[in-house]
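look at this one:
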Amino acid sequence: MSASRERSIAVIGVGCRFPGGVDSAAGLWRLAAEGRQTAGPVPADRWDAARLAALHDPGLVARAAQGCFLDGDVWSWDPRAFSVAANEERWVDPQFRLLMEVAWEAVEHTGVPMDRMRGSRTGVYVGTYAPDNLFREARPVEDAPNSSYLFGNFTAGAAGRVAFAMDLRGPVMVVSTHCSSGLVAMDVACGALTLGECDMALAGGVLLMLSPETHYFEAPLLLSERGACLAFDARADGYVRGEGAGVLVLQRLEDALEAGARVLAVIRGSAVNNDGQAGRLTAPSTDLQQRVFREAVARAGVDPGDVGLVEAHGPGTALGDPIEYTSIQAVYGQGRGRCALGSVKTNIGHSEPVSGIAGVIKAVECLRRGRVPPNRGFEVWNPAIPRAEESRLFVPTDLTDWPVAGAARLAAVCSYGVTGTNAHTILEAAPSGPSRRARASQARLFLVSAGSAGALSAGAERLGAWIEGDGAECDLADVAHTLAVRRRHADHRLAVVAGTRGELAGRERVVTGVPVLPPDHAGPVLVFTGQGSQRPGMGRALLASEPVFAAAVDELEPLVRAESGLSLREMIAGPGELTGIERIQPALFGVQVALAALWRSWGVVPAAVIGQSLGEVAAAVVAGVLSPADGAKVICRRSALLSTISGGAMASVLLDAGTVRAALGEVGADGVCVAVEAGPGITVISGDVAQVAGLVERWNAAGGRGPGDRCGGRLALAAGRPDPGRPARRAGRSLRYGAWRRVLLHGERGSVCSGSAGRGVLGA
């Protein structure tokens, strides 16, 4: 892939799973920075390593009985989330399952809502090669035909299932060049973007070790008896195989910047070639490695002497390490500063078709952070490596600052296949964005959703862990914004209100409670507001442009006029300020009922309705509990009654109700009462205007003033006033309650709860 500066490719999203509990790019960085190694015995649910090794060669026991395996259960998954047919669930290769999950997470990492991805010209390019599940699930010929087994395991399914799960409609293909598969897949994806074959691309790879066959094929010549990959070290005796999956989301840099995407790094150029007959089929060639390096550097248009990190293939083999060092030294050994020689295989093993992608993810994190982690286990150079005294190459043994100062950070990544396919890419740190002002803390809404209750719980747990870990430095406003507008909102949902990390801590994990809707029901919910949302001319444009809205208002017009003597049309379309409760509340009622009718005409049929204060009346009309005539009667008489009540005020304070009541007693404010216990530490008081004002001044001076100002004094009841609700209750006895429309819950009836009364008011 050739890319000028103007035609570079942006990395805008990353998803991954690697040993050691790694499930993010930041997690891979942390594991490498801490110098951890993840090799261990073969899990019992894969195969009996000791028994099988003894069948062949006792000397293979140590080599074949270990690997770098993923944590947890690689067999469990949620097939419904990926549109997998029920008859195929049993047979889908666990590698494909893992790849679909990681690809989904990579897209979410971009901040592009999944709904916008569906039907898009997005390509999928996947590197894979190990048919372990075919070995494990081998079927006798007499079981044929079994199309579910075939389509669950054939190689093309790795990329095809990702595309199907997300409804992606760009080029989709599998690349199989053994260990270089992932980096070659990325090169092909970059080329497709450059040629305009797709607008976005997913490039990655996957490997799970599910059966012993492939493991044992590699053991005699390639696997380490020490159980560690010691790249470039004198003790190196081979590598440890490692599981993993990694997916990068790529976009043309100019498109990413125009769309406001977060750019993690820039791919400046890449190249692919093959050794041909330069040597044996499986022997690496320093000449061809150097050639692919130089081609990538030329296409990137950079000086190799400015590269600060070469993330090497670095498998720790006696043959491969000296040849690779010679190649890297020839191209990158001279220049400004020093150049680190890295190998993530020292941490997570050799993930074969994923290894190049793992190297890119590590390099991206190094570029972003300006630091290079150590190569785990490196002590003494392999004596077979022909080191040059003047070389700028070094193997980091500690967390090291970026070794080239005063220039854009550049990194290179190498990957080679066992049959001679070499891949190389040049990465640059992302362009710096504009500086941002710090934002004041304020309450925000944090949304989490999933396709099932179990997935919601797991997602909330992951969010909580991220907030406290890798996301500890992120602006909470950005987190809330991303969760709200850059995520797909599934059926099972959790909403948390918090203004600080302390308030958010733990709340996102609270996902138990009473379901709002039964599990077999789904659909939109309409929420109807109380007083305070009115504005001049709030229905004027809709009356002029939407016939359905106008018809709904016209239906209510004579009903409101008969009860109040006022014109609904004039109230919601008039140019002047809407004042007076007797005008505001009927106007809001009418607008909301008409809006619900408009939404219905567009196909948005509510599964439930919720109303607050006067919004309860509109919600009841939309649900069919009240007729439009009775709804107009309730709202007009309610507002007329409230307009007769004067002489009071309300205020909210950031104090708990007990403290407020004690303060009322201390100052003798017998004309004020606690009106609402709005929540822990938030209380609303109401009563005599002068006494409320005095209390507000007192608490304000002490720092206890709340988020709400004193409300205009026509709604609050002073303590001890006669009950004004008796006339309203008498009027309510004339109302006729209708049956539910099929609008909320299920069946033909449901339950009505009143937020004002705090209890059920109409049952099934």
Q: What stands out?
A: The CA atoms of residues 546 and 598 lie 8 Å apart. The longest strand covers residues 265-274. The chain has 27 helices and 24 strands. The chain has four domains: 9-429, 444-513, 525-644+734-753, 648-718.
